[in-house]
Amino acid sequence: MNLKITDGELGVRPPVAKPHPGFFHEVGEERFRKLVHDHYDSIKTSDIAFLFPVFDDEDFAEAQKHAADFLIEISGGPDYFTQTRGDHQMVGRHAPFRIDEKARRVWLKLYQPLLMELEDEGISPEYIESFWNYLDIFSKWVINTKS
Ligand code: HEM
């Protein structure tokens, strides 16, 4: 399985394809939520923890839920994010946080072991890769700070 991080750069926003709907379909909502939950949990002890509301359990749980809602929606599941948060506006929603290429790489790296777990659980590697490609490319869009 190829989970390679490609180079991102401030101001460069390559076209992005949504994950293959087969990914959400195979993983199922419950396991999908656990994936995003696990990612946020690993953020807590990472070098990018300072960007997130790690000292407020309620705010952190909210952030975790919004991220899962969004990723489920973009992966072809129910439109939970739009229903509760409105327009996606992902670039604008990340604007208050200083995100550089280094932070993006840390964020992405934390997904790698979690996606390998899914492969061990029998999820099709090509579906996992399609989700990964979405994360790899779209995360370039939220870079707003020079490294
Ligand atoms: C594919 C890439 C990404 C997606 C789809 C994504 C998605 C989201 C979503 C849906 C939210 C919640 C927005 C809201 O409801 O207001 C969010 C918040 C946030 N994201 Fe991302 N994100 C991505 C990449 C990143 C990266 C690379 C970083 C930093 C390294 C980052 C840092 C944050 C921070 C700090 C918040 C705010 C947390 C809070 O205080 O509520 N995101 N992201």
Number of strands: 0
As for the number of domains, it is 1
Rg measurement, Å: 15 Å
Major β-sheet annotation: none
Q: Provide the residue-averaged pLDDT.
A: 98
Query: Poorly predicted ranges (pLDDT <50, ≥5 residues)?
Result: none
State the oligomer. Answer: single chain
Report the CATH architecture.
Orthogonal Bundle
Order of helices and strands: HHHHHHHH
- Secondary structure category: mainly alpha
Helical run tally: 8
Helix share, percent: 55-70%
Overall 3D geometry? globular
What do these coordinates show?
The protein contains eight helices and no strands. Helices cover 60% and strands 0% of the residues. Helix 2 packs across helix 3 (57-74). The protein is mainly α and 147 residues long. The mean pLDDT is 98. It has helices at residues 21-27, 29-44, 57-74, 80-85, 90-94, 101-109, 111-120, 125-141. It has one domain (21-141): Orthogonal Bundle (Globin-like). The site of protoporphyrin IX containing FE has 22 residues, from helix 3, helix 5, helix 6 and helix 8. Protoporphyrin IX containing FE binds next to helix 3, helix 5, helix 6 and helix 8.
Describe the structure concisely.
The protein is an all-alpha fold and 147 residues long. The protein is 60% helix and 0% strand.
